[in-house]
Amino acid sequence: MNCPFSNAGKASAQIVPETDITVTKGETLTLTCKVNEETISIRWRKDGETITERAIIDTRLDEKKSKLALTEFGEEDNGEYSCEARNKPGTVARSVVTVNVKGKASALVVTETSTALTKGDALILTCKVNKETISIKWKKDGDPITERAIINTQLDEGKSKLALISVVEEDSGEYSCEARNKLGTAARSVVTVNIKGNSEAPSSSSSSSSSSLEWYYIGGALAAVVFLVALISYVTKRRETVMGFAGTVEEPSKSVLEMQNMTCLK
């Protein structure tokens, strides 16, 4: 009697990447399970349970692979992810990786001075970051910041300050703060700064013209006052003269009358 036996090959499964991985919060987790030609089915699990409905699974046995994707990865998605490959006899091959989520770095530039400055003013910018940030870098127009800038970074306080004591027109541009987490993921915040030159001082000719015009008005006012005083003085003296003359005319008339009276007596 011939005893039946199976000559079916063993299924195999290998998740890529093979090592435990860390994903930044909010990003997409992508895992690929590679199998062999003996595999007839593939199943994904998380912590031994059927995978969440949020997962997007694309299985292609003809290409000997299955891909799992989780968008907007969060803390609740932390755990052990496994790929199970089965062959015809039902033999299972299993591959496992552990996935951890890390917070995303954040950056926000706050202006402590106006971003519309005049040559010689001070520019002060502060970049506020979160606890996931491990490094902060300042740039201007995409390039490393000028050596003139004073930068004070205090990660324990979650901030970095940039100061330019006396700005010039060449300091105009786009200032950015880049915050990175342990995974190297960067967050970027940008502010645009405009510097204008000092307004030009008035020329000596315009200054002289303005001064002359000012004295013209002052001199004209003084001349008017002097004229009025002189006019009042003249009118007053004229009135006194007229009155004096009238008094002189009256006195001779009296003398003539007395002489006439004496003549009559004789």
UniProtKB/TrEMBL annotation:
Where does the Ig-like domain lie? 11-100, 106-194
User: What CDD domains does UniProt report for this protein, alphabetically?
Assistant: Ig
List UniProt keywords, sorted A-Z: Immunoglobulin domain, Membrane, Transmembrane, Transmembrane helix
PROSITE patterns according to UniProt: IG_LIKE
InterPro entries given for it? Ig-like_dom, Ig-like_dom_sf, Ig-like_fold, Ig_I-set, Ig_sub, Ig_sub2
Instruction: Tell me where the transmembrane regions lie.
Output: 215-235
What is the protein's name according to its record? Ig-like domain-containing protein
